[in-house]
């Protein structure tokens, strides 16, 4: 064993503690060694009691799994401080059933924390004032663990959910962030059934189940998860992603679409697709799309589809016609807005008569 091996083993262990599978080639590249050396180092970690699992095949890799005993963990300064602050919150009843365990774990951690880190923990804790929950609700630790695992592993998550009115529903989501505000936990996720971003109170969530199906990260609404959660809690306008296809070239549609709604992109079929984020009532966006003067089809979310249909019905009734079953269009009451129907003539460079 060379003198560099202990440091390399620590680096390898630090990588494996990330909740993902590492291909052997990627580990070799990160460590600056050969694949054969990686295999030897993996065997050494196993001898030290770390349960490293290997998958077979050309794309096989390594990951650290749960073993019979808890092996030592490697924590950097930031992680150690974060865990200490979190354990103090747990000791203050932030999560039900872990108060005593939090105190025991905190005692062990602070015993080995360097003095400089203990001072940081004390400073942070002094600046934190936890807000009591309005209804005294608490969350089982295993629920938080299941949600955090799905977020880290980018696995689709099923669960039962109870809304503020007591209505029960089943949700299939792509979990994005698990966040806390005051003494409540929230899951920010993309709801696949409703084709839009949603915020779920974790104390209203039950039976979480990670499906094992991985998903690619979606583009999150402007402002990030923290801003999205803040708006949700404060009752501000919810941001949602939308997708619309216009039966017109992107260059023409771009002249009628506000830049902050997004940039239309030609789809190769004579039309274009507009994707973006909007906030506020879906009815507002439906009106903006109708005012472009072009035929369009809503692809997502369902709320926008319903708003467009409602708008079409209102326009039709206002003109004395029968409500249309399909998506409403901008060409007058009862207009057929299906893809492929004729586009109205333009009236000048800005679309005005």
Automatic annotation (TrEMBL):
The keyword Translocase does not apply. The keyword Acetylation does not apply. Residues 336-353 have a biased composition (Basic and acidic residues). Residues 5-60 form the HTH deoR-type domain. Pfam families: HTH_11, WCX, WYL. InterPro entries: CBASS_pafABC_assoc_protein (IPR051534), DeoR_HTH (IPR001034), HTH_11 (IPR013196), PafC-like (IPR028349), Tscrpt_reg_HTH_DeoR_CS (IPR018356), WCX_dom (IPR057727), WH-like_DNA-bd_sf (IPR036388), WH_DNA-bd_sf (IPR036390). Residues 315-353 are annotated as: Disordered. Keywords: DNA-binding, Transcription, Transcription regulation. Coiled coil: none annotated. GO terms for molecular function: DNA binding; DNA-binding transcription factor activity. This is Predicted DNA-binding transcriptional regulator YafY, contains an HTH and WYL domains. It comes from Streptomyces misionensis.
């Amino acid at each position: 064993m060379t003198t560099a091996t202990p440091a390399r083993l620590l680096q390898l262990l630090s990588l494996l503690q990330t909740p993902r599978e590492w291909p052997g080639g990627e580990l070799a590249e990160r460590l600056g060694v050969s694949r054969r050396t990686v295999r030897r180092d993996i065997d050494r970690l196993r001898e030290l009691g770390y349960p490293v699992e290997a998958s077979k095949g050309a794309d096989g890799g390594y990951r650290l799994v749960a073993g019979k005993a808890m092996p030592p963990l490697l924590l950097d300064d930031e992680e150690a401080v974060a865990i200490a602050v979190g354990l103090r919150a747990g000791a203050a009843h932030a999560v039900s059933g872990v108060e005593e365990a939090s105190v025991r774990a905190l005692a062990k951690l602070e015993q080995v924390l360097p003095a400089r880190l203990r001072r940081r923990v004390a400073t942070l804790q002094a600046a934190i004032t936890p807000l009591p929950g309005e209804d005294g609700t608490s969350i089982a630790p295993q629920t938080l663990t299941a949600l955090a695992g799905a977020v880290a592993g980018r696995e689709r998550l099923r669960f039962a959910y109870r809304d503020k009115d007591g209505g029960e529903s089943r949700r299939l989501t792509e979990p994005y962030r698990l966040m806390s505000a005051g003494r409540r936990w929230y899951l920010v996720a993309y709801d696949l059934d409703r084709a839009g971003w949603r915020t779920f109170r974790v104390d209203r969530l039950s039976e979480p189940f990670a499906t094992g199906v991985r998903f690619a990260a979606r583009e999150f609404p402007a402002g990030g998860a923290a801003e999205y959660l803040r708006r949700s809690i404060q009752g501000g306008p919810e941001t949602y992603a939308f997708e619309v296809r216009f039966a017109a070239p992107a260059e023409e549609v771009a002249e009628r679409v506000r830049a902050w709604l997004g940039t239309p992109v030609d789809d190769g079929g004579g039309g274009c697709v507009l994707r973006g984020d909007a906030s506020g009532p879906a009815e507002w966006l439906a009106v903006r799309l109708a005012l472009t003067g072009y035929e369009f089809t809503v692809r997502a979310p369902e709320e926008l589809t319903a708003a467009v249909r409602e708008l079409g019905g209102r326009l039709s009734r206002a003109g004395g016609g029968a409500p249309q079953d399909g998506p409403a269009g901008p060409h007058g009451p009862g207009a057929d807005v299906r893809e492929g129907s004729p586009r109205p003539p333009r009236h000048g460079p800005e679309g005005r008569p």
